[in-house]
Design a protein that fits this description.
2 domains; mainly alpha
Length: 368
């Protein structure tokens, strides 16, 4: 084998080892460093606003930083105020209506029990008494086994629900600590961001720093584009839901839409966490027009989202819709529903690296 080919194979092996080692190291360290990564990302995204205050309004850096934080905190507070006020009105409405709905549901269940289940149970008992003793024993055994399975399933469900609730409550203090740490770290990094960049510039070779700047620039544009695409998709779903609920004459439709839009940001849960239980409740309370209307509305939202999501996301981050569709398909095949998150993020990172020229440099390194 020629020495040139051997050298290329060795360099290829080195690249593969570095890549796999970096992925493994990131996977191990991520649970410990993710607050720092989030703080760095926020500080990175705040820089254009801080520079605007400095360049346009001639503010000192500390005052520009305080103004940026005040601006975002004010917007967040205003949005939270309107959300809480709408939620409060919705809770008052639900607290007034839910007891009546629950009583109606219990009445319907009692009627179902009296008219359907108890006569069927009596018929079953009559049938069992006519069977041979051996068959009767087997029937009783099957019935007892079925009842025990149902009871065990419900018991396991409620035990798991209580355990998950306890785990969530135990996680809250740690989550609050993490949020405080992220806020403080974001403030410190934002104030000293230019010094961090200078130290990074001094610590790594110039060509690697230039590569970092290119990747950061493309990644910033892609991340902003991806979040903009998600906001557009959530707004489209919210508008469709609001129009549909208005046509169905649902009270407090705007409050429900706010809940659904908030849930739509939750990965792999989305708007279905609000609509699906509502459809089931409407069906169980024999409100068939609302059941059909909500089902059609939910199906319409899902179809429209599936049709426009690849196009909007791909346009926002600069990837062709076909490539985004293939990436989402592969992501779902490999990671399940989490693939809807991993696929766009992975494509964003790959696109940023590609535009920076890193792949060409690695190829030139391997080629020698």
């Amino acid at each position: 084998m020629q020495p040139k080919i051997i050298g290329q194979l060795i360099r290829s092996l080195i690249v593969i080892i570095i890549l796999l080692g970096s992925i493994f190291l990131f996977y191990i360290l991520f649970p410990y460093i993710y607050p720092i990564l989030i703080a760095f990302l926020l500080a990175f995204l705040f820089q254009p606003f801080i520079r605007w205050f400095i360049n346009k309004l001639k503010m000192p850096r500390l005052l520009a930083l305080i103004s940026t934080f005040t601006l975002f905190f004010s917007l967040f507070t205003i949005a939270l105020y309107f959300l809480v006020s709408e939620v409060y009105q919705g809770i008052i409405y639900l607290s007034d209506k839910l007891p009546a709905y629950f009583r109606y549901l219990m009445e319907q269940f009692q009627q179902l029990l009296d008219r359907r289940i108890l006569p069927l149970y009596d018929q079953l008992l009559s049938l069992l008494t006519t069977l041979h003793v051996d068959y009767r024993f087997e029937a009783y055994e099957y019935t007892h086994s079925f009842t025990e399975s149902i009871t065990s399933a419900f018991t396991h469900f409620f035990q798991m629900l209580m355990q998950q609730t306890a785990a969530f409550l135990m996680m809250l203090p740690n989550s609050f600590t993490v949020v405080i740490f992220i806020i403080l770290a974001t403030f410190m990094m934002s104030y000293d961001f230019h010094n961090l960049q200078n130290k990074l510039h001094e610590a790594i070779p110039p060509n690697w720093y230039a590569l970092y700047k290119k990747i950061a620039s493309h990644l910033k544009g892609a991340v902003i584009g991806y979040f903009r695409a998600q906001v557009i998709l959530v707004c489209i779903s919210a508008v469709i839901l609001w129009i549909g609920l208005s046509i169905l004459r649902v009270e407090h439709a705007f409050t429900i839409v706010l809940f659904a839009a908030t849930a739509d940001f939750i990965p792999y849960l989305g708007i279905g966490i609000i609509i699906i239980p509502w459809i089931l409740f409407s069906f169980l309370t024999f409100n068939y027009p609302l059941t059909i209307g909500l089902s059609v509305l939910y199906g319409l939202i899902i179809i429209i989202r599936q049709l426009i999501e690849p196009k909007i996301v791909a346009t926002s981050i600069g990837i062709s819709p076909l490539m985004m569709l293939i990436g989402m398909f592969l992501g779902v095949q490999w990671f399940g529903v989490l693939g809807f998150i991993f696929a766009p993020v992975t494509l964003v990172i790959i696109l940023a690296i590609k535009k920076s020229g890193l792949f060409q440099q690695v190829f030139l390194y391997i080629k020698g």
